[in-house]
Amino acid sequence: MENSVELDPDYYLDNFFKLTRHAKHWYSDLLTAEEHQWLSAFEQSNKDAQCLLVRLYSRKGCWFRSDKLNYQEIVNLRQALNELEQHGFVELNPLISEQELAANLLTKPEIHALYPLHSKSLKKDALIEQLSEDLFNQFEALEFIIIKLNSAHMIDVLLTLFFANTHQDLSQFVLDDLGLHQFEQYQLSKACRFFESREQIDRLIQLSQLSELYWQCDRKQKANLDNLITAMPDPVEHRYVDRKREHMINDIARDYERLSEFELALDLFEQTTLAPSRERRARIYDKLNLDAQLSDVVTDILTYPIDVSELEVAQKLEQRVKRKQGLKVPRASKPKCREYHLELDLSQQRVELAAKAHFESLGWTVFYSENALLNGLLGLTFWDAIFAPIEGAFINAYQHRPLDLYHADFTHKRETLICQALSSIQQGKTKQLSDTYRNKFGISNPFVSWTHLEEELLQHALKNISGDMLAELFKVQLSDLKLYRNGMPDLIAFKDGTFEWIEVKGPGDKLQDNQWRWIEEFHRLNVPFSVCYVNH
């Protein structure tokens, strides 16, 4: 559907003021004197200057050229630049070396025009290398004004205070303004702020910048990993911020492990409490034949697993420990599945759709839903619990999920609401799911994919799957929300008041671990399920 929303040319200025108002209202005491001065000067600037500054903050880097700035809402660019310079927001034609100018702002033909003695056959990088690090002084030869953005960190501070993450930026407001992202009207945190010290804010910004370096660098080079670890900041007393830090340490440790730098990897994995740090330590001990250490870590995980996923890993590692001790380990038996074996034409469509058409020809109503159905039902059933006013869960109006969704205590904090929803489902009160579907359609929910959960599918599921069975499936998901959001069968088929989930496998394809996990639960709960093997 075509979007008819049209934004004003200066739409972004109002959005930027959302950031500044939030910073002043919630975190005035954590801002520096220079930042307060910056905010005050920004508010006192005229609209053209404000618009231009926000435009510069929306672009990459801190070097710009005036001839590349063309915005219809800024009436007088030169006047706006002069005002920004007066307030110290920018420097015009500042001190800059020849190399720096060429690298950041000039095209190769422009470099040759300024420095005609250099060979034209050189690539731009090589040409820049030959330029001097002396200060540039030929400003009159340029057809534009060089602009250097000062206080480039301000946008990082404002975005971090507002979103408390490292991926949302000003474009988030645009998506919302255009109606492309719709968010639930949840209650924002009031009892306490997300940040309580300036150190916490700076640490999250540091980690964001380090994360960017991590993804940009060649992680097969040990020196790059060494540099990242050297730059890693100390822990800070803020669980959300330090989880970010621990995640990055785990990532770097895993890269060391891939390079066979096992001692370095072990040292880093021992510094974190997040999965998969214990699993990776166990696997390294196994590679190094340090059997006692391997056994100790596995026992630790089995005794105190973080979640179902880590427990499953430990159970497999326990078999490895026993084999190394010379004990016989019986092969784990897998549940028997009902199977279909079909010969279908796969030349015109993918195997799942060919199987869907086959079962439809037998009178079934079939949907190719994969994970969308059960996740969607979960999201609709526990909508109120997901968006409950838990302190610290929601800190701005642009979250599609609470900050603690995948934390170990998520369900405990919402136990009453979750139990009420489960009880309602068990009593067969499914009309409220249909009502939630219609009332909330299009609003972001971490489990509901509106494009894949059509209302016809929802109604068939609610009509044919008992409330007791749904409640039991939801309990499985709630035991580990991240683990059990994947691995569901491809198709669900309905006929004469019955249903069946069907996993489709093409030639040479086999069931994966995350699918066996669900199959075992289906077997335990007597959920109708089959595997359809297709040849052509």
Helices and strands in order:
Blueprint: H1 11-27, H2 33-44, H3 47-57, E1 63-65, H4 77-86, E2 90-92, H5 98-105, H6 108-114, H7 124-130, E3 146-149, H8 153-163, H9 171-177, H10 198-216, H11 222-231, H12 239-258, H13 262-269, H14 277-287, H15 291-303, H16 308-324, E4 338-343, H17 351-361, E5 365-368, H18 372-381, H19 383-386, H20 410-413, H21 415-426, H22 431-440, H23 455-464, H24 467-479, E6 491-495, E7 498-505, H25 513-525, E8 529-535
Parallel strand pairs: 4-8, 7-8
Antiparallel strand pairs: 1-3, 2-3, 5-6, 6-7
Structure commentary:
Strand 6 (491-495) and strand 7 form a beta hairpin. The protein is globular. The two termini are 38 Å apart. It is an alpha/beta fold. It has helices at 11-27, 33-44, 47-57, 77-86, 98-105, 108-114, 124-130, 153-163, 171-177, 198-216, 222-231, 239-258, 262-269, 277-287, 291-303, 308-324, 351-361, 372-381, 383-386, 410-413, 415-426, 431-440, 455-464, 467-479, 513-525, and strands at 63-65, 90-92, 146-149, 338-343, 365-368, 491-495, 498-505, 529-535. 51% of the residues lie in helices and 7% in strands. The longest helix has 20 residues, at 239-258. Helix 3 packs across helix 4 (77-86). The chain has a 5-stranded mixed beta sheet with strand order 4-8-7-6-5, sandwiched between helices. Strands 1-3-2 form a 3-stranded antiparallel beta sheet.
